[in-house]
Amino acid sequence: MRLWTLWLAFALAAAAMLTAAERERRYAPSVFIDGVVNGASFLPAPDNYVVPNGIISIFGEDLALRTRQVSEADLVAERLPTSLEGVSVIIGGQAAPLYFVSPAQINAQAPSALPQGETLLWINRENLISNKITVRVRPADPGLFTAAGRPVISHLDYSLVGRGEAPGATPAHPGEYVVLFMTALGPTLPAVVAGQLPSFAAVLQRPAQVTIGGRLIPSEFVDYAGQAPGLAGVYQINLLLPADTPAGDLEIHVDIDGLISQPGMLLAVDR
After folding, report:
1. Under a CB-based contact definition with an 8 Å cutoff, are residues 26 and 128 in contact?
2. Where are the domains of the chain?
3. Which secondary structure element, helix H or strand E, spans residue 11, and what is its range?
4. Radius of gyration of the chain (CA)
5. What is the pLDDT of residues 167-208, one digit of tens each?
6. Spatial contact of 217 and 78, defined as CB atoms under 8 Å apart
C-alpha cells in the first residue's frame, strides 16, 4: 500500500471531527490564545509549543472559508503546499506546509529552521491577517497519533494494533515487531526539510526511550527511530516486543530527553 494512503487515514482523522459550517464571512481569522497543540496528541498546550518539522493543529475562528485537506494533486516535487484555499500559516516569518484547513482548525507542519525560544504565529486568509500569538519552539514534543481511542501502532503489514476498535485491528504478540507512528520527535540525520515527503530513512539525533507497562524497553529492541519515509512530519519507531511482555492493555510512553508522549495510550498485547 502507498504510505500516503495510511497518512490520510489517521493523521487527518482528527480534523474530520470538526465540521464547522463553511461560510463566506469576511471577518479576519482569529487564533485562540491557547489554540496551538501537538497535531498527534492534541494535549492542551497553554505554552503553544511547536517543534521544527513537527505537526501542529491550530484552533480558532474564521481560519478558512472552506474545508479542504491536501491531496496528491496539491504536491509540487513531492512537497506539501504552503497555501491551501487561500490560507497560509506563518511561523517565525516562515510559511508552514499545510495538510488541512477549515473554519475552526488548521493542520500544519512547523518549518525546519525555527530557532529555540519564542516566536510569533499568525494566519493569512486571502490577505486578512489574524491576531499574532506567541509560540515556544522546543527541541521535541513527542506525540502518538490516535485512532478510535488507541495509539496508532501497526503490525509490519500496516494493519492496526488494537482490539477491534478500528476495522481489522488485532492485538500484538510478544516477540513481534510493531511500528509506532508519531510526530515532533526532533531533528534527524540526514536532515529533512519541512513539507518534503522523503523517500529515505532519517534517524533521530536524540535516542528515543520506550516504556511499556512501566518497563523500559532495552535500546537494542528499538530497531529504528526516525522519519517515516514518504510521510511529511511523521516519525516512526520500529520496536521488537520482548518475549516476556505480559498480556493486557499496557500503557506506552516515548521519552526524548525527558520530554514524554501523552498519558493513557494503551498497547493491546495477547500472548
Report:
1. yes
2. 3-137, 143-269
3. none
4. 18
5. 999 999 999 999 999 999 999 999 999 999 999 999 999 999
6. no
Contact 82, 234 (CB under 8 A): no
Q: Does domain 143-269 have CATH number 2.10.25?
A: no
pLDDT of residue 95: 98
Residue type, 220: E
User: What is the pairing mode between strands 215-216 and 209-212?
Assistant: antiparallel
Q: Identify the CA nearest to 225 among candidates 240, 210, 208.
A: 208
Ramachandran class of 32: left when φ > 0, alpha when ψ lies in -120 to 50, beta otherwise: beta
The set of cell numbers assigned to 123 is 494566519
Return the number of other C-beta atoms located less than 10 Å from residue 30's C-beta: 14
The reply to whether 143-269 shares the fold of 3-137 is: yes
* Cα→Cα distances 117→32, 48, 108, 134, Å: 20, 12, 19, 10
Dihedral sign for Cα atoms in the order 91, 206, 9, 246: negative
DSSP string computed for 20-79: PPP----SPPEEEEEEEEETTT----TT-EE-TT-EEEEEEESS-SS-EE--GGG-SSSB
Cα torsion 126, 130, 132, 136: sign: negative
Q: Which residues of 169-183 are buried (b: 16+ CB within 10 A; e: fewer)?
A: bebbbeebebbbbbb
pTM of the model: 0.91
Arch. (CATH architecture) of 3-137: Sandwich (2.60)
Residues 6+ apart with CB under 8 A from 250: 212, 213, 266, 267, 269
